[in-house]
Amino acid sequence: MSDREPTSVLLPTTEWSPVCEQLRAGLAEGDELLVLCDTEADPVACRDTPDGVEVVVAGEPEGCSGKANALAAGMQRAENDRFVWTDDDFDRSPGWLDRLVTESRRHGPTTLLPEFVGGGWWHLAKPALLQVLVVRTLLVERRGDGEAFPWGGGVAFGRSDLESGVDALVADLRRCLSDDLVLDDHLRRCRRDPELDATVAVDGDLKSVSDRLLRYFRADHVHKDGGLTAEFALWCPVAAAAVLAPLPAAVAATAAVGVALSAAGQLRWHAALAYPAVLLVPLLLAVGMVVTDVEWAGRRYRVTDDGVEVVTR
Fold it and tell me: Which site from 16, 160, 254, 272 is most exposed, i.e. has the minimal number of CB atoms within 10 Å?
């Protein structure tokens, strides 16, 4: 028997897509699907919705990203004590929502590990990101066995799982770029369900990839105490050693990335690009430390230690 309890599903999007239908079909008794858009001008804002679905107009963001602003409005509107945050850029099976909610009820906050797939420059960017995340998890953040970073594209948690309550979470969302990082601050230990998946297609052209990476690393640098300084200091000698001893470095990097991808069930040929990705990591960290302007979903943000400014909409 399922341990389902009434759940509020929060979906930031500007249009009614097949994902909306997939989530609506997965709703159980007492659930609500909150479709979160920015303004009344968004295509989804005037759509007639079926029972259990409501469109929430969050308004233009002020001092945070559009997605964080939408989630803040959704959390304030949500009526249930269990929440699911998810995105509109991947398809899900009929039982996806039920499993995510049920696992979070049984085991506490539950998330999944997405697979971002794309061509072009993304083939090089992905192993670089993976190596940063592995080192960060093991050496910098020192997460315990089974402890996972909550991905806002697919995460479920209860109101009681928030250490400081919904109001504190909403307040932090309204002054951040990355909703994932804020949720990580507020959630008690989160776990990953290996049975859940999400395949997210990303653009592989140079501008799209560089915008995505800059957003990731700039948010990390501003959000975390000490920023990326310690990681930059760690990766510079690693990259230097890789230049001086390319063959053993290539073997070690390729093996490490291959093992990590294999463990996640995502082993692909671009694991072979792990060595050049090692050389790229210090540059990515440095750019995240110094470049303040970030483009995301049609908006430009200026992200500094003082907060987030919406520069252009």
Answer: 160
Q: How far is residue 200's CA from residue 113's CA, in Å, rounded to a whole number?
A: 11
What whole-number distance in Å separates Cα of residue 207 and Cα of residue 101? 36
Round the CA-based radius of gyration of the chain to a whole number and report it.
20
* Tokens describing residue 15: 């249009």
pTM of the model: 0.94
pLDDT at 142: 67
Task: Please report, to the nearest 10 degrees, the dihedral formed by the alpha carbons of residues 32, 156, 117, 213 taken in order.
Answer: 110
Give per-residue pLDDT as tens, 171-189: 999 999 999 999 999 998 8
Mean pLDDT score across all residues of the chain: 93
E strand residue ranges, the chain:
7-12, 32-37, 53-57, 82-86, 110-111, 115-117, 154-158, 191-192, 199-201, 293-296, 299-304, 307-312
Q: State residue 3's pLDDT score.
A: 57
> In terms of C-beta distances under 8 Å and separation of at least 24 residues, what long-range contacts does 257-266 make, across chains too?
257/127, 257/130, 257/131, 260/130, 260/134, 261/130, 264/113, 264/115, 265/194, 265/197, 266/113, 266/115
Rounded CA separation 204/108 (Å)? 35
Q: What whole-number distance in Å separates Cα of residue 22 and Cα of residue 121?
A: 31
43-73 pLDDT, tens digit per residue, is 999 999 999 999 999 999 999 999 999 999 9
Q: Which of 139, 154, 149, 146 is nearest to 185 (CA)?
A: 149
CA dist 278 and 259 (Å) reads 16
Cα distances (Å, whole numbers) of residue 264 to 136, 192, 200, 226: 17, 11, 15, 30
Q: What percent of the chain has pLDDT over 70?
A: 97
